[in-house]
Amino acid sequence: MLAKLSGRPLLRHCAITGAVGLALLGAGLPTVTTDKDKDEPDLSRFYDQKVTWSKCKGMDAPKDLQCGKITVPLDYSRPKAGTLDLALARYRATGDSRGSVLLNFGGPGGAGVSELAAGGDEFMGLAKGYDVVSFDPRGVGRSSPVSCGDGTDEALAATDDGSEVSDDPRSVLTTLKKAAAACAEHSGPVLPHIGTVDAARDLDVMRQALGDKKLNYLGFSYGTRLGAVYAAQFPKKVGRLVLDGVDTLTEPMTEQALVGAEGQQKALDDFIDWCAEDIACPFGQDPRSARDQVVRLIDSLDEDPVPTDWGDTFSGQDLVSAISQALYSRALWPSLERAVAQLVEDGDTRGVLSFTGGGYALPRRAAAADGNGGLADEDEVPLDNLPAALMAINCADDPDRPSADEITRNLGRLRAEYEEVSPVFGRYRLTEVLMCYGRPKGTDYIREDVRDVDGPKMLLVGTRGDPATPYRWTVETAKRLGDAAVVLDNKGDGHTGYASSKCVQRKVDTFLLYGSLPPSGSSCGSEEDDH
Prior knowledge:
Oligomer: single chain
Largest sheet: 11 strands, mixed
Strand content: 5-15%
CATH architecture of the largest domain: 3-Layer(aba) Sandwich
Number of strands: 13
């Protein structure tokens, strides 16, 4: 899933989506191997290691959080060609431990160590039977973080609101190729090996280093893609897997963006219906009229942006970005209502800016430039690491590479389709058609081979009002994975279900702790019915 900005912990977002005009460098072809391969290079030195846990250093962390690391090969097909260290963190089990449960909070590009430090309280129920562990995937956070240097700002400026993309697409493509070169310069040798296929192999090394015979795993949003790829690669090593906010495994980037715009529009419509019941709603009490007013406000701000306290201006597309972030959780709806009211009534941008999370500054050079990377300190993580990793991983996972001619020829049709499904988010998401332009082709393994998993049952959670990973993706992915998939239908709002629905959390914890699955097709009601 994709994002422009994120200023809140990924637990509340779980995966960062929103606008995407972050066409940064993708990665090269990942090495695709499975536990069935017979001619695999010797990886025993990686599988023989154990994690040494100690107090977390160089970061603000709770006293009971422990940190560690594992070493993995940079290239699994050539394990002697270099290594990198992956950062881990854990809370020890509070009861009798049956091993570890690994958490991935989404992104791609989300750092698990800092997220576990900030939001670990959400998972203390699991600590009754597990060590609760998270990690920074390769290229992310403290694990040899990738960066694009000033290419981040160049890419953002070129694709900021989608208008220049439509008016002069070839100029934008030229800018994005420069940004791609900047990514290669700043990221080091980890970049061609940053995709989900390699990350899933890292998961298996992690599993062994933690002393677990099977992988117990809870993945949110993008983390569901990682979990599904692991299950396809290592079906005999699957323990209890939960995928919450299920990502697509098949749709090309252009289709993902279109579905994403449609999902965001539905979430916005639900918010407007809720807002219109309040006399303080800045759009009035008629939902149909309110929808028109949202579009008019965005258009007005695009034509005449308002100043901010930071000396720059706030446009309509900045408002779209803020709204897209606020829709991740129903709990944020009252704050969004107040923030928009402040903007409409007083021109005060402080409330809406709180949802955008700020901007990016020029990063430091990423770690692992020599191919043998140790852990980066917290203050060494490039400030653009999230968008740089997000684009690199998504492009590594996607085999489609339309030419400049194809993009230019199809752009008008695509824009019409996007704006038809969402007059608010359509243009904002249009830039996703460019995200991997000029990058090496990604793997087709996920699209072609992650299917019919011959392993234990796994639990897939889909939320009906999810603005980022629509419920239909849960159903489609369940069919692809075959008999192993069991679906839990969460009839609520917001992105993912675990943090917002007590019913979902209870059923997920029961499965992970005790192995008891709900019947496939069972459901949880809206949050109001969850108490």
